[in-house]
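Lab meeting, item 3. Inverse folding demo.
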């Protein structure tokens, strides 16, 4: 299973970006999906998560500005980021809890991360 994140870039304060993350591999089911971020010199922190049933959870710092969504048919998770602030500058990582098939057809449960996409918000 591999996750590929995209959509980062440079934006001015108040601007918007949309991050995408696509999963590939011999996947049976994807449960929770989420976005995390890591700013320079800081620990990785949760941004938002979405369950298979569509329940969402947001960090207080992004509540009301960011929206997480998912497309299970496409095996993708998205993060719409509006009203961006300089403190949102970080590398953003997608995360998925995946049930996949091993080569011997046995089920494998795993927690997977994308490679990270850089979001820079200028003041």
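The presenter then showed the designed sequence:
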């Amino acid at each position: 299973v591999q996750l590929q994140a995209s959509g980062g870039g440079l934006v001015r304060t108040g601007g918007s970006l949309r991050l995408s993350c696509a999963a590939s591999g011999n996947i049976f089911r994807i449960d929770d999906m989420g976005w995390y971020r890591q700013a320079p010199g800081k620990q990785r922190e949760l941004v938002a998560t979405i369950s298979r049933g569509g329940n969402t959870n947001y960090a207080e710092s992004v509540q009301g500005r960011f929206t997480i969504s998912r497309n299970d048919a496409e095996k993708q998770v998205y993060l719409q980021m509006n009203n961006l602030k300089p403190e949102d500058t970080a590398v953003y990582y997608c995360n998925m809890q995946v049930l996949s098939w091993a080569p011997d057809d046995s089920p494998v449960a795993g927690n997977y991360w994308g490679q990270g996409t850089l979001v820079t918000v200028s003041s």
